[in-house]
Each structure stands twice: as structure tokens, then as C-alpha cells.
Amino acid sequence: MRQVSLELDSQKFYVLRGENGAGKSTLLRMIAGLSEPTEGRILIYGLKNKEAFSRMGYMAHAPLLYDELTGMENLRFFAELYGITSDQPLMEAMQRVGLDPGLKRRVGQYSQGMRQRLSLARAIFHSPRLLLLDEPFSNVDPDSALQIAKLLAVMRDEGATIMLVTHQTGLLSNVADEYILMSRGELADRGAMQRVHA
Amino acid sequence: MSAGVVRLTAVNLRKDVRLEWRSRDVFNSMLFFALLVVVVFSYVFDASAEEARRMMGGLIWIAFLFSTTMALNQSWARELRNGVLDAYRVSPSPPEALFLGKTIGNFIFVLLLECLMAPLFVIFYNLRALGNVWLLLPIFLLGTWALVVNGTFFAAMSIRTRSRELMLPLLLLPISIPAVLMMVTATSAVLTGEGSPVPQIKFLAGYCVIFSTVCLLLFDTVLNAE
Fold first, then answer.
1. In terms of CATH architecture, what is A13-195?
2. Which pLDDT band holds residue B57 (cuts at 50, 70, 90)?
3. Which of A64-73, A90-99, A143-152, B40-49 is predicted with the least confidence, judged by mean pLDDT?
4. Which pLDDT value is given to residue A134?
5. Min CA distance, B87 vs chain A (Å)?
6. Nearest CB partner across the interface for B11, out of A56, A80, A106
7. What does the DSSP assignment read for A93-127?
């Protein structure tokens, strides 16, 4: 990453674009606090990123789930890390991503698409104000991808700021507000989402 | 230690016990290795009861040391599978809770192994302690904690290296030597009835306190190292 200076408005939906190796996932990991920048600082609602963990939701390439646990068991474990002990927000998160909270199957037996949905549920159950998503549509069928895109738009309307890495920008042309284009570790362009498909 | 850390330690411990109950990754690898050591050494050494008492302290702890080493990598490997550790790192939960939960979990698994293996050592080596057998309790509790607390810490450090199976023993064994020497001499003292194991037990207690504190203080750095 080189000379990346970026300010995001709250309650907006950003799409991070760029060729493979442009630094999109690295930027997302830095904002999430998983990688340290060599210089500079990252502030989220005025707080250092490591002080804002409870306001942030992160979904990575990998599902970040235990294969040996069921979907609800996974969510219950992560919810307790956030101090949430009620099942209600977890069941709501599962229903929002189109999964049955009563499903007894372990995650190891889920399809790739189901894992992806559960991973999204894990990132949103605590109603984060900043949602960072790395390729949430990979391995998801087109109908489900559209459903997820609509859910993200609803979350943006409910107050969340969303930053999403994807190559499937067509799905988001009517949903996202702005795109940010990265190239070789630098910010190359930024603009309204309509410009991408104009 | 805050109430939040204690609660989250219990959350992590419960999760680790549940994962182990369902996969048995850690326990099976430890049990298989310890069984091999007991059986193979019983054929290698045609020991009388007296000889067995003298060498058994070393043999018991070698079996448990290497079994533990094998298991510790497994206990962290499940956190790397599917990148779950990253989900923990972006949560507001303190790193100490993860470390303590995992250390206590590993401690329970190794103690369980020791309880299962103890009768086998007695049967295969015709073993009978001549000293105060109850002193084996603090020796095993402190000795196991000493192995597990350092092992869990160094396994977390080596898990993201390419040759982690080699790295863990390279880091763990040198730092465990003083504790292992004390465990072996204290166990031998109880089995042979020659000398008191109390000084070694005191040493082990001090060792556990020092290394538990150091590992807890440094774990945040290890967890967030890229």
C-alpha cells in the first residue's frame, strides 16, 4: 500500500474495485485492524480501529467459522465475545441471510454458499456501524447474491457504512453509492457507482 | 483479572472442550503417542521393579512431554482452519481470555491423558511407590501446567510458521528443561522413597507463576504478529 488517504462518509455503501493484487483485501484488513500500516493511522468514528471492534463487522475470503459447530453454536460463541447472550439477534441475523436458525447440521457439512451466508450473519449479528466485506458473493448462486446485495442496502439504510470488495460490480450498480478503484497499492479513482456501468 | 476476562475465558474453554469432544483431534494424537511410548519401552527395558522405579520418573515425563507437544499444535491448528483466529482478533474480546481458555483446555486434556496412562505405567512396569504417593498430585498438577502454559504460548507463536511441527519443540524444550528436571527428580524421589520432593515442588510452583505471568503479558503481541 502506498499513500492511501481515504475518508468515508457514514451510512454510505462503498465498493472497492481493482485488479488482483491491487491491495483491496490488504486495505480491508488494515481497516479491520488485522494488519498494521507502516505509517499513518486509521480512525473509525473518531476511534483507533482497535478501539472500535464492537462497532465493526468483518467478513473475509475464508468463512471464519468452526466446522465442528452448528451455525447457531458458531454465532453464540462469537456473540459472547461481543457480550451478547441472547439468541434473538443471532436468529434474526440468520433469517436475514436466508438461513434456518434451527438447522442442526455442523458447518463442515454446509455448502460453500451456506457458509458464505453464515459468515455474513457472523459479521452482522451485532448490528455493526461499519461493515467490511471481502468478496461476499463468491460461491453464492446469482439469486442469493442479489438477495445479499439487497440486504446490504437495507443495512446501509438502517445506518451502517459498508465497504465491500468484489469483482461482481454489476450486482451492486443500483445498490452501492460509490466505488473506490485501487491499482498497485494506490487509490486510482473514486466516484459515483453509476459511472462504473455508464 | 477482570470479571470480563474470567467470563470470556470460560466461553473459550467451553468452546474448546466442545470442539475436542466432537473432533477428538488433540486427545487421540496424545493418547496414541503415549501408548506407543509405554508399550515400546516396556519391551526395550526388561526392568525389575527396583530399576523401573529409578527410571520411571524420566520415562513418564518424556511420554507426557512429547504427547503434549504433538497435541498443542493441533489445538491451535483448528483456530487457523477457516481463518477463525481473525474473527477473534476483530472482536472486542481480550487476548488473555483466548490464551487462558486454551491453556486450561489443554491442561484438562493432558491431565485426562495422565489419569488414563497412570494405571498402564503401573501394570507394564510393575510399579509401586515407596514414598508418599500423595505428593505425586502436586508434582503432576504443577508439572503439567508448566508444560501446557509454555506449550500453548509457543504453539501460538509457531503455528503460522511453515515448519511448525519442528518449531514448537525447538522453542518449548529448551525453556522447559528446568521444569522437566524438577518433575523427573521429584517423581523419582516419590517412587524410590529416597529424599524429599518438596524443594522441587516449590521450584515448580515458582516456575508456573513466572511463566504464566510472562506468557499472559506477551500473548497479545504473539496473537497480532503478522
1. 3-Layer(aba) Sandwich (3.40)
2. confident
3. B40-49
4. 94
5. 6
6. A80
7. HHHHTT--TT--SBGGGS-HHHHHHHHHHHHHTT-
